[in-house]
Amino acid sequence: MKLSELKKGQTAEIISFDDDELKVRFYEMGCLPGEKISLELIAPLGDPIAININGNLLSIRKQDASTIKVRVD
Amino acid sequence: MKKEEKLPNVYLAGNPNCGKSSIFNIITGLQQKTSNVPGTTIEIRSSVVKSNNGKAVKLFDLPGLYSINPVSKDEQIACEPLLNPEHKNYPDHVIVVADMTNLKRNLLLFTQISDLSIPVSLVLNMADIAEKKGVDVDIERLEKELGIIVFKTSVRKGLNIDKIKELVFKNGFKSHFKSYEPPSLKQFVTNTDIDISKFNDYQALQLAYRNTEIVGAKAHRKIFEEQRAMEVMVRYKSIDKLLSKTVKIKDRSKLFSEKADIILTHKIGGYLIFLIILAVIFQSVFKLAEYPMSLIENMFNYLGNFFTLNLEKGIFQSLVVNGILAGLSGVITFIPQIVILFFFLAIIEDSGYMARVSFILDKVMKKFGMNGKSVLPIISGAACAIPAIMSTRTIENKRDRLITILVTPFISCSARLPVYIMMISIIPIDYKILGIFNHKGFLLMAMYILGVITSLIAAVVLSKVIKNTEHSGFIMEMPNYQIPRLKNIATTCYIKAKSFIWEAGKIIFIISMILWYLTSFGPSNKIHNIEQNIAEKVMKGELSHEQANSELMSEKQKYSYAGYFGRSIEPFIKPLGFDWRIGISLITSFIAREVFVGSMATIYGTSEENFVNIREKMQSEINPETNQPFFSIATCLSLMVFYALAMQCASTLAVVYKETKRWKWPIIQFVLMGITAWLASFVTYNIFF
After folding, report:
1. Who contacts A53 (Cβ-Cβ below 8 Å, separation ≥6)?
2. Which of B102, B222, B233 lies nearest to residue A32, judging by beta carbons?
3. B45, B342, B549, B621: most buried by Cβ count inside 10 Å?
């Protein structure tokens, strides 16, 4: 499933990235395939979302989050 | 002067939000210089630092980076000194500041810099928060693994501050830690002026990343993107291995930050708290700025009177009083607002709250072609567009930042208030809405709403026209909440005020001098004749001294270049219901909008203090064509709309130049806002006429 489809509080593992250019940026921010990622907050208006990666909070727009494939364990 | 001997270049590098800038502030104090990286809007701070025993180094503060392959072109240019050993500012030592709570990500930049064969040291900052998070780092082991100096600090708790200050003067070591084997590219990188025979493989790869043209085809871009992704992945693997040997993470309790986020990003509580904070800021900016501003005003009045009395009457006196002093006050009057607004904005930024504001409002701003980080600058525009535009530096995306800069001046600033108040006081209507609201309050509110709506429409239009050259991805770190450090905030305020005075102040001063010339001199010797005429009338006893003075001022304004100019633009502003007198005031308003009131007072031959008098004079003015009062509802509203939407502030234009580094943008802004204002006034005038 896509990262943007995760429910609040859910944890998942990053599988792959659809957008090559964004991929490098996500990599540099610590979002790598195999890493555990969890959805911490959803903005009151539904977008963006805040994800926790390695104990760090990142705000990502849903549009960008939909380029990340994840697997819920 | 003796030629400066070459000092060692020491750099501070690190991720955004790692506390690097606070460290720079602590080491350098207020001695720092801010300079623009040529061709970019990125500012790099630097300072010559001297130790107690007379050693000196030049310390640079790089912009916050996640990697030395930053997304933005400007940031790429900013880290160029690290990549070219021939560069005049090539580092002798880079101190990497890492956020200890997130070592993995922070070490990525470290490994890249280290692979450039630059001597490095590593400072693990925010040790206090890391301990709370249960992060335990074996410093000795880490030093051994990396082969460099490593220590923990906490700027907030004052841990090891002396050690950082000493480190700046020490030599760094080249790390033997290898996290990545770059492919050999030397054979491809041939078509360049830089002699790369001395480059190592990673330096050559970096050169190739940046100059795709030197390795030829566009097809390479894809390969490089893959290469970059590979590089990051491989580095993280080695970093993971390193951290497994040196870092232990214990279980932890829920942090304050996480609890606070539940409230501050709550769908009701979040917005409510934001509104309360805004209310406090605005109340403070208006109330607190009043005192220093009236102090500055009094000081300039005093100086003006002093020079009027003590200098011989003539051009020189006029130059000093109406040219130089007016120009200086046009610069200095803005300082209190800049300092106070930045005081609050720095607290919001330093505490980590800024990211939350962006988070809860990003979706709204995205609709208008901006992002969440545009919220505070735009709102700050209601106090003064100048500090608001200066605060757009936190917006990383170039296009979003540019749009924010261009639309912020549509928001009604405090300088428009005197104009609104004057026009509302003479507008010939009087009725109450719903029996409670006075038309005055309603009109004032309507002007503010007009500004907000226009700025948002303008943003939508601009976002369609200005292309996004950077990737649209909006990934923003939400740092842990921290108590802001007062000293750091004070430094920010000081630097902002200083950069405004030196960069925008010069331009404002020059424009003031031009305006002084235009209002003091005329194309013929008519002004001289008028002076003589009035002097004769005084001699004959037809005019009192006071009357003579105001008549002289009024006549002078009419026959100056500005006066002729005001009259020559009459055909353009007549459709808006304005005449040449308003035309003159529109031109003189350029130094600051509130000058309109004073300028109208001069033309109507009274003093600004005598507000009732000028109001009566303006109200009794009859339009010869219609035999109705000249300041009809249509004219008054049209004028207010014009002031709400036109770019009539030389200081703002100067700041837009300072922030965009191009004259193109202030000129475009001036023209577009002018056209918008003209059209809106035209429509308003014709609706109410």
Report:
1. A29, A30, A31, A35, A36, A37
2. B233
3. B342
Tell me the domains of chain B and their CATH numbers: 9-178 (3.40.50.300), 509-688 (no CATH)
Q: How far is Cα B451 from Cα B673, in angstroms, rounded to an integer?
A: 11
Whether residues B104 and A50 touch (CB distance < 8 A) is answered with no
CA distance B102 to B600: 61
Chain A hits for B233, Cβ within 8 Å: 27, 32-33
CB contact under 8 Å between B225 and A20, yes or no, is: yes
Q: How far apart are CA A47 and CA B560, in angstroms?
A: 57
CA distance A33 to chain B (A): 9
Alpha-helical (H) ranges within B381-504 are: 385-390, 398-407, 417-426, 439-465, 486-499
> Which residue range(s) make up the domain with A22?
3-72
Which residue from A minimizes the CA distance to B475? A60
Count CB pairs under 8 A between chains A and B.
117
Q: What are phi and psi of B204, to 5 degrees?
A: -65, -40
Q: Does residue B428 have a cis bond before it (omega within 30 degrees)?
A: no
Residue pointed to by tokens 């939350």: B356
The beta-carbon neighbor of B475 closest among A29, A43, A45 is A29
pLDDT of residue B229: 87
Region B82-95: what's the mean pLDDT? 91
Radius of gyration of chain B (CA): 30
Rounded-to-integer distance, Cα A21 and Cα B637, Å = 51
Phi, psi of B607 (to 5 degrees): -95, 160
Closest to B521 measured CA to CA, from B553, B563, B561: B561
What type of residue sits at position B644? A
Nearest by CB: A64 against B105, B358, B475: B475
**Cβ B133–A55 below 8 Å, yes or no?**
yes
Q: Give the CATH number for residue A14.
A: 2.30.30.90
DSSP-derived 3-state class of residue B60: strand
Total count of domains within chain A: 1
Q: Give B8 or B504, the one with higher predicted confidence.
A: B8
Q: Which residues of B touch A (CB under 8 A)?
A: 66-67, 69, 71, 101-102, 104-105, 108, 133, 222, 225-226, 228-229, 232-233, 236, 257-258, 261, 265-267, 270-271, 355, 358-360, 362-364, 366, 372, 471-479
Give the tens place of pLDDT for each residue, B182-238: 887 666 665 666 666 778 888 888 877 776 655 555 556 667 778 888 899 999 999
Judged by CB atoms closer than 8 Å, whether chains meet at A43 and B66 is answered as: no
Predicted confidence (pLDDT) per residue in B240-253, tens digit: 999 999 998 876 65
A23–B229 CB contact, under 8 Å: yes
ipTM associated with this complex: 0.95
Kindly list the residues from chain A whose CB atom is less than 8 angstroms away from the CB atom of residue B229.
Answer: 20, 23-24, 27
Would you state the pLDDT for residue B685? 94
pTM summary value: 0.84
| Confidence grade of residue B71 (pLDDT, cut at 50, 70, 90) | confident
Q: Helix, strand or coil for residue B136?
A: strand
User: Which residue has tokens 């580095």?
Assistant: B235
In degrees rounded to 5, what are phi and psi of residue A68?
-110, 125
Query: 10 Å Cβ neighbour count for B674?
Result: 15
CB contact under 8 Å between A61 and B236, yes or no, is no
Which residues from B are below 8 Å from A24, CB to CB?
Answer: 69, 225, 228-229, 232
Q: Note the pLDDT tens digit of each residue in B131-155.
A: 888 889 999 999 999 999 999 999 8
Long-range (24+ apart) CB contacts under 8 A made by B283-286 are: B284/B340, B284/B344, B285/B337, B285/B340, B285/B341, B285/B344, B285/B383, B286/B383, B286/B414
